[in-house]
Amino acid sequence: MARIKSHGTVPEIAVRRATHAIGLRFRLQSKRLPGKPDLVFPSRRVALFVHGCFWHQHEGCRRSNKPKSRTEYWDEKLARNVRRDLIVREELAKLGRSVVTILECETRSPDFLKQALIERVAAISPSNHARSLPGNSPLAAA
Ligand SMILES: [Zn+2]
Predict the structure, then answer these.
(1) How far, in Å, is the centroid of ligand 1 from the Cα of 100?
(2) What does each C-alpha distance from 96 to 42, 46, 83 come to in angstroms?
């Protein structure tokens, strides 16, 4: 199991901790994948990003409020981040990866976070190509 690197942000560390607590196996920062996902779940082919609400302009979130000064600068900079997120998401989809995003404001409550990870990551069954669920007939395999 990979050692937890020291440079993780507080939300990233919260996500790793919650992921570990619900028993999901993950790897840290995959530099080979577009956008360098913060966590990857190889058997599920999931790439997970922990996004800051401000930098990634979480819609409707109070943490995403833009500064009142240098508005043009910020508008442009943040719009570029959002565009890049979309491109990365498309590139990962082309590589057969599901993309899961956890926002900074979702990492505040460990219980909420665990639930979100169960719904968004654990719900994706490991490797669709070699599915072998107990009790399922082979017909279920597409
Ligand atoms: Zn938010």
Answers:
(1) 15
(2) 11, 9, 20
CB 39 within 8 A of CB 100: no
Q: How far is the CA of 130 from the centre of ligand 1 (A)?
A: 36
Q: How far is the CA of 92 from the centre of ligand 1 (A)?
A: 23
CA distance 57 to 97: 23
126 touches 30 (CB < 8 A): no
List the shell of residues around ion ligand 1, using CB closer than 5 Å: 53, 58, 61, 63, 103, 105
pLDDT per residue of the chain (142 residues) written in tens, 0 to 9? 444 444 588 999 999 999 999 999 999 877 889 999 999 999 999 999 999 999 999 999 999 999 999 999 999 999 999 999 999 999 999 999 999 999 999 999 999 999 999 999 999 988 754 444 444 444 444 3
Whether the CB-CB separation of 101 and 51 falls below 8 Å is answered with: yes
Instruction: Name the residue with tokens 């043009």.
Output: 72
Q: What is the pTM of this model?
A: 0.81
Distance 106 CA to ligand 1 centre (A): 7
